[in-house]
Design goal:
- By secondary structure, the protein is an all-alpha fold.
- The chain has 6 helices and no strands.
- It starts with a helix and ends with a helix.
């Protein structure tokens, strides 16, 4: 179960070596090690406590969603501070309106 997931380590190193620019140092993707550590903890330490694993999983999914939103929007904390809260609130409200209207269209049409 865990051994297949560990293939991510050599794949990460291989792709970072293949896609590096000329003269550029290979940067080590440290998040891969933390990902593997999380897999090991979940597999061996949290196996007997499924409620804790489910709680951590829920928090991790929410933070990953927020992180992907910021990456997709090319936002950082510094940019958010410089721009202010109003555009962020407007974007979230627009997303909610579009999502709900699309859901209503799918559901009723």
């Amino acid at each position: 179960k865990l051994t297949r997931a560990l293939w991510i380590i050599p794949m990460a190193f291989a792709t970072s070596f293949i896609f590096k620019s000329k003269g550029q140092k290979i940067s080590i993707p440290w998040f891969i090690f933390f990902f593997v550590l999380a897999m090991v903890v979940n597999t061996y330490l949290l196996d007997g406590v499924p409620q804790l694993g489910a709680a951590i999983n829920g928090i991790a999914r929410k933070t990953l969603t927020i992180t992907m939103f910021f990456i997709g929007a090319s936002l950082s904390i510094d940019v958010l501070r410089a721009v202010g809260v109003k555009p962020l609130v407007q974007g979230v409200l627009l997303w909610v309106v579009i999502s709900l209207s699309t859901l209503a269209y799918i559901y009723f049409v």
